[in-house]
């Protein structure tokens, strides 16, 4: 009996501790949500307090003036297209790198991996000049090119090590049954890679969604810009209209949170499946 | 199957080549007509002109400068329907990154904004031309500008920018009521009185000066630029800037650093000064828990918009008092335009003339009227001010600013690397983890690099 009580108490303490810990993680989000309903004056008087009156004007301003819906669409387009390209190209390249032995195989692999070592900021000006000379600035697909290029090294690295660890016998069996190379690649190996695909999907989606320097440098048309740039527009030179910025951030973050809540189980599976943890 | 795959890859390759070529030609087409319109424009007065304009006033930005800019530009657009302006608004912080990259790629827009410290780099690369001729040819425009407005952009006697704002980076916003309650009837006029006042306010349980130096520029731009001048005088700074012998290790500059550290040591500031920013430093003031804060004139519109009515009514403005043995003027105040417009040096003919017309619309005396009415701080004198449209604090500011003698702002005139050393050093100085002498040596070492 005594033993049982002791166990209950320790469990309660541990749970309490964990709950407090979780609150520190979720509080910034909650704070952002309710702060977006305050007026600028309320916010500057007290940062933490709850809004006295629900003030939805910030959201109207964020959409009407801040055009958050437009930035959101652009971000979504860029992220989705680059993720699809990264996965298809990365997978095919990695398959051939891991299953075939040819001249310069190691060289090609290393060249791809070197991409992970290049700091993005050192490439801003060279890439800008290159894009200018090639007339690639200010197009719908402008940002997709660097996003794919920067996403590929990690994708190839993860795919390559994963494919190497899967038994080659499955492919041999498929070959004996008369499957062509492309059937084997896309119908046999691709589904086997599912855990690592979700890892790559999440990581490269997040990278493209949050990417800032290229979006700032390579685009001039307002109608092509992405969310991170749109959000930064709320910062003045010396002052920030925080409640309006919060409202814009809620618009930017809410869909991501909803998607996460709907598919959190799968995302965590994917995160833990790869050999490299996000 | 294999053949089909080969055909497919060939097809993809071909389409890619063609799409690239197509992009090239459409872009070429775009530049074609604008070039020819510039040539045609010299004949007819109302030929269509298209200008690209990269600025730092997004419509989301609610500062007075941004509001005034948009009002003035809208007015220009409605008066000149033949002019199309392709704007690219960027926030202040991103603007600098972008304009530097555009300059490196020689892709600057037709009209843009330069920072005082950027001008020499732009001139070396022949990206901008002096604006003196244009300004001088229009006396009305020229005369409206405030004294010292062009200072940040003068290189070899020529001005390379048309200023639109006049920053006074140092102002003391104080709560008259709180000072009265602590037994201070008038704002101190000597340094000793100022220190006494701080002690009295502390005894009342108030934070004497609320400071948010997380962004690390507040202590330097809003306090030290003026405090330094009180001790060193402006000639010392000129000598520093032109590398004519003055040193950061000179006793006058060290005294300024020591005075700042003494303020911190005696508890004049809040203890979390390095972890809150300049927006948050005003929170304590708005709640009546701090008696003063020091910030530039941009905070005038913050106080008007955000402070509770009674705090706002009690707010008065002052400058740091004179210091004992200081070489500076007590009415000197760190001020400058910091940013200014200029046009791309490749513009010619009608486009050039129109570009200057646009700039006149966003800098002249009419603009100044709009600007003052938006609680901003233009670089020109407005023709008429309808004082009834202004908030009381704005009027107090206008009265004070008329008496101010502008002296340089450190971060608008010194190199970015040096300012970085100074700013981070000041953060340490304020929490007493570096002595004024050591900090002065560090700044001097960076200066001599």
TrEMBL record, chain A:
<feature type="transmembrane region" description="Helical">
    <location>
        <begin position="141"/>
        <end position="163"/>
    </location>
</feature>
<keyword id="KW-1133">Transmembrane helix</keyword>
<feature type="transmembrane region" description="Helical">
    <location>
        <begin position="109"/>
        <end position="129"/>
    </location>
</feature>
<keyword id="KW-0472">Membrane</keyword>
<keyword id="KW-0812">Transmembrane</keyword>
<feature type="transmembrane region" description="Helical">
    <location>
        <begin position="12"/>
        <end position="34"/>
    </location>
</feature>
<dbReference type="InterPro" id="IPR035906">
    <property type="entry name" value="MetI-like_sf"/>
</dbReference>
<feature type="transmembrane region" description="Helical">
    <location>
        <begin position="184"/>
        <end position="206"/>
    </location>
</feature>
<comment type="similarity">
    <text>Belongs to the binding-protein-dependent transport system permease family.</text>
</comment>
<dbReference type="GO" id="GO:0005886">
    <property type="term" value="C:plasma membrane"/>
</dbReference>
<keyword id="KW-0813">Transport</keyword>
<keyword id="KW-1003">Cell membrane</keyword>
<protein>
    <submittedName>
        <fullName>L-arabinose transport system permease protein AraQ</fullName>
    </submittedName>
</protein>
<dbReference type="Pfam" id="PF00528">
    <property type="entry name" value="BPD_transp_1"/>
</dbReference>
<feature type="transmembrane region" description="Helical">
    <location>
        <begin position="76"/>
        <end position="97"/>
    </location>
</feature>
<feature type="transmembrane region" description="Helical">
    <location>
        <begin position="242"/>
        <end position="262"/>
    </location>
</feature>
<dbReference type="InterPro" id="IPR000515">
    <property type="entry name" value="MetI-like"/>
</dbReference>
<dbReference type="GO" id="GO:0055085">
    <property type="term" value="P:transmembrane transport"/>
</dbReference>
<feature type="domain" description="ABC transmembrane type-1">
    <location>
        <begin position="72"/>
        <end position="263"/>
    </location>
</feature>
UniProtKB/TrEMBL annotation, chain B:
<keyword id="KW-0732">Signal</keyword>
<protein>
    <submittedName>
        <fullName>sn-glycerol-3-phosphate-binding periplasmic protein UgpB</fullName>
    </submittedName>
</protein>
<dbReference type="Pfam" id="PF01547">
    <property type="entry name" value="SBP_bac_1"/>
</dbReference>
<dbReference type="InterPro" id="IPR006059">
    <property type="entry name" value="SBP"/>
</dbReference>
<dbReference type="InterPro" id="IPR050490">
    <property type="entry name" value="Bact_solute-bd_prot1"/>
</dbReference>
<feature type="signal peptide">
    <location>
        <begin position="1"/>
        <end position="21"/>
    </location>
</feature>
